[in-house]
Amino acid sequence: VDATSAMILVKAEEPEVPELEIIASGWSGYTTWVLTEDGTLTFTPSEQQENGQTNLKNYWKVNGVLTLPWTDYSEIITKVVVKEGIHDIGQMAFYELPNLTEVVLPESAVEIRNYAFKNCTKLTTINLEVVENICEGAFYGCSALEDVTFAADVTIGDFAFSRTPVVLP
Fold this sequence. Notes:
Blueprint: E1 22-28, E2 31-36, E3 40-45, E4 54-55, E5 79-82, E6 86-89, E7 102-104, E8 111-112, E9 125-128, E10 133-134, E11 147-150, E12 155-156
Parallel strand pairs: 3-5, 4-6, 5-7, 6-8, 8-10, 9-11, 10-12
Antiparallel strand pairs: 1-2, 2-3
């Protein structure tokens, strides 16, 4: 074999990607959630379903107080990732997360319930092109939200984008 036709194969080593530390985890409706040290709150569907769907839980204020399972970590949450298979984003699920800047929704997410992202003041952009129904006040007070991609046939509830710079379709 001469030098011009010889080929030397060198196996490149995979770079080590450190695993992120899990800060907290739990259940929300028919999903499990994990919060990692980088501020990412990830929701994964469980095998349990209601009416054939997997949804994030709806939350309510009790005596004027809203307690979410991730309330103690609200300051460090910067990103929410909802995995494929989850259909509804629960009422008040991400209410007033002060440092939330990014939301990743799956193609299966077709509804965002009342006040789900209310007052997430650092959220600037979100892709809602698969969401069919955006309920009352869903993004109310998201004052930095400027870039929104809507589905062609979306239904938008009252006050869904009040106190935001968003121009509705």
